[in-house]
Amino acid sequence: MQLERSRKVLAPRGHRQGGFTLIEMLIAMMILLAVAGIVMSGMVQMMFVQGSVANRSEMHSSVRSATELLQQEIGQAGRATLPAPVTMSTPVVIPPGTQGTGVTQTVSVSSTTGMFNGEYLVVDTGADQETVQISGLTPTTFTATFYYSHPTVVGATSWPVTVQGAFITGIVPPDKVNTSVAGLPLVPNTNASGVLVGSTGTKLKLYGDINGDGNMVYIEYTCDTSIVPGNLYRNVIPVPAEGVTI
Asked: What's the structural domain count of the chain?
């Protein structure tokens, strides 16, 4: 009987598992979250800075635009003009010996748009050119005292009428001004109703042919500081033929 030697058979051992433990994974996640939080905080801060810079740039651009417009309109303030060329079609003849006193006459013109009673106009050209003060305006006539003759001659049946000069109060003076000698007390700048009409520290008033198109306008800038950071308002009112009350 053959005896076989018993053999001890050992089962194969399993491979050791690699990787992170739960604690290591938690530590790694905490580090990752901290880094991500720092990065996100930096990005949000950059967004806030960029928004602030954009708002500041827009504000500065708006201020520059408003300042440039204000500068241009101040330069045009007080300019007097007519919206279209005007001619006088009524001849004026001054009798001999009346040049010193003049002759008051109503004359016809192509248009009185943009004129007002009491305005000074320049009539004719050359040696017969003169400045007259008009009154009695109608759509096609006005009355004035003439000191030079403007007779009808061959090739000349009309005479140009223009505006030369400007309004001294194109930038409306402050509420209280000294209209006479220096050293005297200030006097109120009021309209016919006794209402103060001058510019103030927060309100600037302008009038004239501001846009250079022959049309008179009245412009009012108002700086409202009742709210922060404040607002600047600009109001434009066309001046009609009969005038406007400031």
From this structure: 2
Domain end point (choices 133, 162, 191):
162
Other Cβ atoms closer than 10 A to 99:
13
Full strand arrangement of the beta sheet holding 86-88: 86-88, 159-162, 120-123, 130-133
Classify residue 220: in a domain, yes or no.
yes
By the 10 Å C-beta count (0-12 exposed, 13-18 middle, 19+ buried), 71 is classed as exposed
Give the span between the Cα atoms of 138 and 143, in whole angstroms. 9
Average pLDDT (138-144) is 93
What pLDDT is attached to residue 134?
94
The pTM of the whole model exceeds 0.70 = no
Domain annotation covers residue 148: yes
pLDDT of residue 86: 93
Distance in angstroms (rounded) separating the CA atoms of residues 223 and 200: 10
Strand partners, 219: 206, 236
Write out the residue range of the structural domain in which residue 190 sits: 167-238
